[in-house]
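Aim 2 progress. For HIT family hydrolase, the working sequence is reproduced below.
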Amino acid sequence: MDCLFCKIINREIPSDIVYEDEDVLAFNDINPQAPTHVLLIPKRHVATLNDLKEDDLALVGRMTFSAAKLANEYGFAEDGYRVVMNCNEKGGQSVYHIHMHLMGGRRFTWPAG
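Predicted structure tokens for this construct:
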């Protein structure tokens, strides 16, 4: 498989890993959009949100729980933070392995910017 994130999981490509458990890996984004910008990925390859199955509910829940845990550890949980998942090209997805962006450390506005 030629998936960038699978290669990170398999340690074929180095990354700045900040969290890991049995199901989830988190690392600093190489193009941060906030003072803290972490990507959380499942260790099992799922290309897009559209490819999720009912059996994946716990996996996405684990990703979300891990994002909240990291926000607390980084110290911005109470002030607020942004969690984003993109789906397909028009949704802004550039790597076809589901991932969650955790961004904090600054004020966010809507629409995103």
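The longest helix spans residues 57-74. This observation will guide construct design in the next reporting period.
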